[in-house]
């Protein structure tokens, strides 16, 4: 099957977390099943190649739509027409069997372009907009009505989508997947000092929950916090976190690791006593899944995909968002109990292996594609 993925804002070549990582994982797994996958994203640097064939065999096309520089979501809207024209021309010459769009901007250009060549569109919202964002709300309602099928990465989003008009019989949950050959308990661990280690992973942006983790760390003794995400230099959120840690007297125990390549993430995760994920919303849960696959216990907020991924007190622990006191209490209990950490780590690995392998989830995605593609669905 020839599959086109549209991910306008999240480039699987450069974004190691969130949507970009999810698209990369799904495209790689689909290629391993023998499918042909092309990912379309927007060019954001002038020196980037037009087309890149990855080691995982999928192709990334970096579409010239607007200036070759990062743009905000509002700035990007003016250039979605250029993106759609590029796709329409490309697909007129050689059309895919199915299009899978990720996030609302991608969904709009996919609907426009795929309609011209009569190709079905599967759409993933990856979180819904706030009520006062009228452009996004209108787009999401349109996508709910017009997409051939809707795929979500967590069950919590299904109820919201039904309120938009998505029929439950035309929606599926296909969560994010993990490369279990790479993320596993066996293998080297990154070097560390005498302090116990807590690791948290995500983008340095409001809503990440990093401030809650820093606040909790300040009242938990003999623990260092390693923050993995974007480059911390000149990042305003990183500056705020440093100021908070300095005020709380824990700056010397906070490490900004920056961007860690995927091949080095397992070793870093294995070096952690606990991994903490404290976002206010989370459609993917990739950071938690990768830590769990490495057999590391996870404390996470009960939001989005994290409610599916973790069964409280079985494969991890849940904590309310923004509650530094509750997080500190759980960290103290867990760091003092080697047996409990081991039990949670083993159960976490079993949970991921049973439900979240890339191959299983790629097969579930293909089952959706075959439903909307009459040719391959009848083979």
UniProtKB/TrEMBL annotation:
Presence of keyword Transport: no
A GO MF term: transferase activity
Domain of life: Bacteria
Short name of any one Pfam family annotated for the protein: Glycos_transf_1
Glycosyl transferase family domain location: 196-350
Repeat is among the record's keywords: no
Domain Glycosyltransferase subfamily 4-like N-terminal: 17-177
Keywords recorded for this protein, A-Z: Glycosyltransferase, Transferase
PANTHER family per the UniProt record, alphabetical: SULFOQUINOVOSYL TRANSFERASE SQD2
UniProt protein name: Glycosyl transferase
Organism: Lentzea pudingi
Lineage, highest ranks first: Bacteria, Bacillati, Actinomycetota, Actinomycetes, Pseudonocardiales
